[in-house]
Amino acid sequence: MSNYHIKHLEEYYQVYRKSVREPENFWEEIAEEHFMWRKKWDNVLSWDFSKPEVTWFEGAQLNITENCIDRHLATRGNKTAILFEPNNPNEAALHISYNQLYERVNKFANVLKAQGITKGDRVCIYLPMIPELAVSVLACARIGAIHSVVFAGFSSTALATRINDSDCKMVITSDGSYRGAKTINLKGIVDDALKDCPCVKTVLVAKRIESDINMEAGRDQWLQPLLDEALPVCAPEIMNAEDPLFILYTSGSTGKPKGMVHSTAGYMVYAAYTFKNVFQYRENDVYWCTADIGWITGHSYIVYGPLANGATTVMFEGVPSYPDFGRFWEIVEKHKVNQFYTAPTAIRALAKQGTELVEKYNLSSLKTLGSVGEPINEEAWHWYNDNIGKKKSPIVDTWWQTETGGIMITPIPFVTPTKPTYATLPFIGIQPALMDENGNEIKGNQVDGRLCIKFPWPSMARTIWGNHQRYKDTYFSAFENKYFTGDGALRDEVGYYRITGRVDDVIIVSGHNLGTAPIEDAVNEHPAVAESAIVGYPHDVKGNALYGYVILKDTGESRDQNNLRNEINQIITEHIGPIAKLDKIQFTSGLPKTRSGKIMRRILRKIAHKDTSNLGDTSTLLNPEVVQDIIDNAL
Ligand code: WT7
């Protein structure tokens, strides 16, 4: 038997050592014993980070939906696969069994086929957290179409950019969505986006809210009547191990979003194996990850990882604050949730509300708590540990990225002793390295540096859609023969890792990855703006908030600054989405620049942090005088 399920610390070290010494044997055993293959591989791994090129399980054939659904039917047909909890607590929850999921996915797959979608086509999914979202993802995988899920909080411009970048033929959306007390006209956003997307031929529309929407003849179709007519069986498309399963966009520090391409076999094996161990999932447990399927967390740990293990996975449509801030805990009690996985920003927002709404509910079902998306600060860690876990449920602080496909550094609950703010140890098969600025690996403990990974793992992204050069430049050029994560980290005296944050121009706001350049581009669209620079500063709920320094054009007119601020944020909302709005906007006459014209963000960051004691030598700047002026007018 392979070590699929790790149960104590000694076993972790033993399995970890094996995964590093004989990675191919190790992963071959895991793959062989725990998944369903139509054909086994010829070669477990081949790799060359200089190209970069990585293949896992080359030659193997499979369909991930057979692994996530079909193979469970004999033993778990009536077990709940997806437990849907609606936005409105008075609307009944929906238990979708594996049998029912099979039927829904197969019907949907047949609808996609009937609409002309075939293997390799890209399908954009822009849906709220309703069952159709998970079902459409799986339906694409069933027929070998490449899904590109776009988080339904993104604006029409952001949606159009993503649709066009990967040349999607179809968009799957809904008439609207519920979000707390609000309803959102999703179809209207899609209509706006599609004005600029000639590649889209068909729009399938799920019905969620009662509203009148525009249906464009020849392009838009209601989903339900098509499903009603579809046959309930669709033979799975047999995929090669390295065929792309999906594209998921993530922001870069510069330029347009990067469409990370994930493989079929390697992604499946790693997502499933990490899910099993990081959450210590046992048969009949109810597992809940509060993320949206629009992010990688939802792909790997709401859909693919849990279903590949035959788990029951909760899908929650709503928000933590509706109808009140007790909603998460109400759901935990109602569905007797055993594993709960959320983001530090949610924990901080809930902690602010005190514990009254926590104490109202019985949380005794909880066994494991997870955290993801950004560093969890000590205070939030303790609040989570004391009030939610009652000091009995270990917190797994899981570090990973859209690019890594699965969890990379994490404790294993009941196995790895936890330490507040530490993601602790590399997961099985993961070989981290800390690098100094000269490109040398820093060995030993009690050190810090730039976090790299020096050996391939099965679920790493294989490329950026349509731009392999950018993939190489972004991740494999900073340090020779290593994947560079963009994060800084320290390693303590026992070898535990603590992620200290991004070392590039990406800012994590409420767990969302935002590049400064695209936001600056949006700000500069305002006719009154000449130039802008955006930095992050610490925020007690969001982790980081955005601080914009804006130079206005000299038009001689005076303008109301608050109106300008609102207009700038409106443009950001239209171009990216409300998550990228600036918390503070300081109008300034200049920005500190080097003699070669580069904005000195380090100085702007310090001012935004209200830490101006040590700005370093500013005398070599092109315009040292603006620094004092910015400090004097800082917000
Ligand atoms: C960036 C990746 C992984 C799914 C959600 C975010 C930060 C993520 C942690 C953590 C400290 C974390 C990193 C990383 N991050 N998890 N546990 N501790 N930082 O995916 O949007 O691709 O963002 O999120 O900075 O590079 P993403």
TrEMBL record:
<feature type="domain" description="Acetyl-coenzyme A synthetase N-terminal">
    <location>
        <begin position="12"/>
        <end position="68"/>
    </location>
</feature>
<dbReference type="InterPro" id="IPR020845">
    <property type="entry name" value="AMP-binding_CS"/>
</dbReference>
<dbReference type="Pfam" id="PF16177">
    <property type="entry name" value="ACAS_N"/>
</dbReference>
<dbReference type="InterPro" id="IPR045851">
    <property type="entry name" value="AMP-bd_C_sf"/>
</dbReference>
<dbReference type="InterPro" id="IPR032387">
    <property type="entry name" value="ACAS_N"/>
</dbReference>
<dbReference type="InterPro" id="IPR011904">
    <property type="entry name" value="Ac_CoA_lig"/>
</dbReference>
<comment type="similarity">
    <text>Belongs to the ATP-dependent AMP-binding enzyme family.</text>
</comment>
<keyword id="KW-0007">Acetylation</keyword>
<dbReference type="InterPro" id="IPR042099">
    <property type="entry name" value="ANL_N_sf"/>
</dbReference>
<keyword id="KW-0436">Ligase</keyword>
<dbReference type="GO" id="GO:0003987">
    <property type="term" value="F:acetate-CoA ligase activity"/>
</dbReference>
<dbReference type="GO" id="GO:0005524">
    <property type="term" value="F:ATP binding"/>
</dbReference>
<feature type="domain" description="AMP-binding enzyme C-terminal">
    <location>
        <begin position="519"/>
        <end position="598"/>
    </location>
</feature>
<dbReference type="InterPro" id="IPR000873">
    <property type="entry name" value="AMP-dep_synth/lig_dom"/>
</dbReference>
<protein>
    <recommendedName>
        <fullName>Acetate--CoA ligase</fullName>
        <ecNumber>6.2.1.1</ecNumber>
    </recommendedName>
</protein>
<dbReference type="Pfam" id="PF00501">
    <property type="entry name" value="AMP-binding"/>
</dbReference>
<keyword id="KW-0547">Nucleotide-binding</keyword>
<keyword id="KW-0067">ATP-binding</keyword>
<feature type="domain" description="AMP-dependent synthetase/ligase">
    <location>
        <begin position="70"/>
        <end position="462"/>
    </location>
</feature>
<dbReference type="InterPro" id="IPR025110">
    <property type="entry name" value="AMP-bd_C"/>
</dbReference>
<dbReference type="GO" id="GO:0019427">
    <property type="term" value="P:acetyl-CoA biosynthetic process from acetate"/>
</dbReference>
<dbReference type="Pfam" id="PF13193">
    <property type="entry name" value="AMP-binding_C"/>
</dbReference>
<dbReference type="GO" id="GO:0016208">
    <property type="term" value="F:AMP binding"/>
</dbReference>
